[in-house]
Amino acid sequence: MHRQVRMTRAALMAAGALLCSTAAFAQDDGLRAGVREDMPELMELYRHLHANPELSFEEDETAAKLAARMRELGFEVTEGVGKTGVVAVMENGEGPTVLIRADMDGLPVVEQTGLPFASTVKATPATGVETGVMHACGHDTHMTAWIGAAQQLVDHKDEWSGTLVMILQPAEEVGEGALAMLEDGLFTRFPKPDYAIAFHDAAQFPAGTIGYSPGYALANVDSVDITVKGVGGHGAYPQSTRDPVVLASSIVMKLQTLVSRELSPLEPGVVTVGSFRAGSKHNIISDEAKLQLTVRSYTDEARKLLLDGIARIARGEAIAAGIAEDQLPVVTVADPYTPSTFNDPEFTETVMTGFRTRFGEDRVMQVPSVMGGEDFSQYRRADPDGVESLIFWIGGVPEDEWQAAQNGEATLPSLHSPFWAPDAEKVIETGAEALAAAAIDLMPAKGG
């Protein structure tokens, strides 16, 4: 079982204060100096990416721009992997293979940050409704730090030996991009990694801090649809109907017992009904109601318990309501789903030991696992005995906003908020150095 250690409010405040001082950097070397020298160019790239987001599996211009940059650095680059993904390979002698991932897609969100380079892009997603597009999850900082790390790894080629596989992944927001790249031969057409690493910006930590969770870090994510059938009729004569609204309401309430009474209290789980739709008029009892659920878990066993329980409750409540066998609820689980993300504990601690030495003890903290999802999990899941993986967090909350929130004077926006504007410079600078340093530590040069 994984262990959770909470980052206390006092620890977070201390970390935030520490970032204001020169003591924030415990180790200063050529790698850090190189990142800092590149920051003006990287920030120009970041502003371009932020102003020009693209939706999932539509990241054509983003992929082309960054692929060209990787070719200039000397990588062997392949585009169109998993639709719009990019794979950049650099072989630099004998040694392990390290995969570094960044995700590319934006979200159908109308930006309200007020930034001078805010996105004004509009697009039409699968819903068919035109919307604004925004990097509301910070993938623009991920890509920019990824480029920054690549530049440093090229500049420091004499310090590492092995194979570097750097990938730009599409469609993380819909949970399909990693699987698309794997199904398109990521581990067969290209060197299969011994290690896979990535980071995600965080909207709950001070900018420049690093958070990590050994073991389960993010959850299984399942989307479940339940179509509840009934017998419609006049609202004044309910005795002649089988009301699907009442039945669906019973199902919603009974679903709450799955986590509270069937799942172990020591096993995290979430069953949330996000949508309940039925009927069209005050005095008409509909013949159908539709529920949309998100289901979160960590282990495969807990996932099975929750999904089996949803199907059983929907069927049982319908039978109790007198619904005929051929009219029982239809339960559909979306495929593919996003598997839980597991950080190999020993590997995680190895990388974090290096980060503590490099960034200082107070900037690197173990944090609670979350019930959000990340399809970075697919890379380890494709070969759990051969690939050790780690995804970590880099705080993005600007200093003034962090202090205001600690004083109770402001509420912080979350990831996916139209107001999320991280301190991109600190995220990118920390991310580029962390990714490059981790790779160098994992692929030491002969005699290093």
From TrEMBL:
Q: Where is the signal peptide?
A: 1-26
Q: Name one Pfam family in it.
A: Peptidase_M20
Q: Which residue range or ranges hold the Peptidase M20 dimerisation domain? A: 218-317
Q: Which InterPro entries does the record cross-reference, listed alphabetically?
A: Amidohydrolase, Bact_exopeptidase_dim_dom, Peptidase_M20, Peptidase_M20_dimer
Tell me the protein's name. Amidohydrolase
Q: Which keywords, in A-to-Z order, does the entry hold?
A: Hydrolase, Signal
The record's listing under SUPFAM superfamilies reads: Bacterial exopeptidase dimerisation domain, Zn-dependent exopeptidases
Source domain of life is Bacteria
